[in-house]
Amino acid sequence: MSVIERLTKASHLIDMDDIIREGHPTLRKVATEIQLPLSDEEVILGEKMLQFLKHSQDPVMAEKMKLRGGVGLAAPQIDISKRIIAVLVPNPEDEEGNPPAEAYALQEVMYNPKIVSHSIQEAAMEGGEGCLSVDREVPGYVVRHARVTVEYFDKTGEKHRIKLKGFNAIVVQHEIDHINGIMFYDRINPEHPFAIKEGMLVIE
Questions:
Q1: Spatial contact of 184 and 174, defined as CB atoms under 8 Å apart
Q2: Has 174 been labeled as part of a binding site?
Q3: Do the annotations mark residue 192 as ligand-binding?
Q4: 22, 158, 175, 204: which is the annotated catalytic residue?
Q5: What is the rounded average pLDDT of the residues 176-201?
Q6: Residue pair 173/106 in contact by the 8 Å Cβ criterion
Q7: Could you tell me the domains of the chain?
């Protein structure tokens, strides 16, 4: 049984055991383009990846399934070298602790996503970045574009073009890096991990 057959079985829930870790060769490969129309397996895989992110953000399910919280997952991280990413960025509660009107700032499975334009301004997360495939902390600023325009196909094969900034832009760039064989720490300055370039935006 292939990896995709196993992961897309109706009874299977993606968990941490399915996620490959740094050092695995699949994480360094450039993933293959998805052919349209999508296969049923590819649609189901995307839904399962998004379901994993929902479970990882749900305190009860995360504890039960022993999941690390995540906002993005790329197919190469589950040992499938295809250009598929899932992103699930929750909106924060308001100052009184009330839930947001819209639960998610970004909720999408993207097939063949690509950055078609980006800002000159760069940005990095103040607390650095983590990755479900990396079981250690790697301190330093992961330098990315502050704003990006991304084109992708959804599960129905419809083409989308969206503009992203801030944390949403960072998350999508992190996942697109995965389908290009790039790890987040490749973007940290090895000599000066916390160097701030002129004009760089540091996102809290």
A1: yes
A2: yes
A3: no
A4: 175
A5: 96
A6: no
A7: 3-202 (3.90.45.10)
Closest listed residue to residue 130, CA positions, set 174, 173, 165: 174
pLDDT mean over 73-81:
98
Contact 86, 73 (CB under 8 A): yes
The answer on pLDDT for 20 being more than 90 is: yes
User: Under DSSP, is residue 163 helix (H, G, I), strand (E, B) or coil?
Assistant: strand
Does 118 appear as a known binding residue? no
- Collapse the DSSP code of 152 into the 3-class scheme (helix H, G, I; strand E, B; otherwise coil) and give the result: strand
Q: Taking 90 as the threshold, does the pLDDT of residue 72 lie above it?
A: yes
Q: Is 108 a catalytic residue?
A: no
Say if CB 85 and CB 73 are below 8 A apart.
yes
> What is the pLDDT confidence band of residue 94, given thresholds at 50, 70 and 90?
confident
- Quote the pTM value: 0.96
pLDDT surpassing 90 at residue 81: yes
- Rounded-to-10 torsion of CA 174, 178, 181, 187: 20
Confidence of residue 26 (pLDDT cuts 50, 70, 90): very high
Pinpoint the alpha helices (H) of 24-58: 40-57
What does residue 22 show for φ and ψ, rounded to 5 degrees? -50, 145
- The DSSP element (H or E) to which 78 belongs, if any, is none
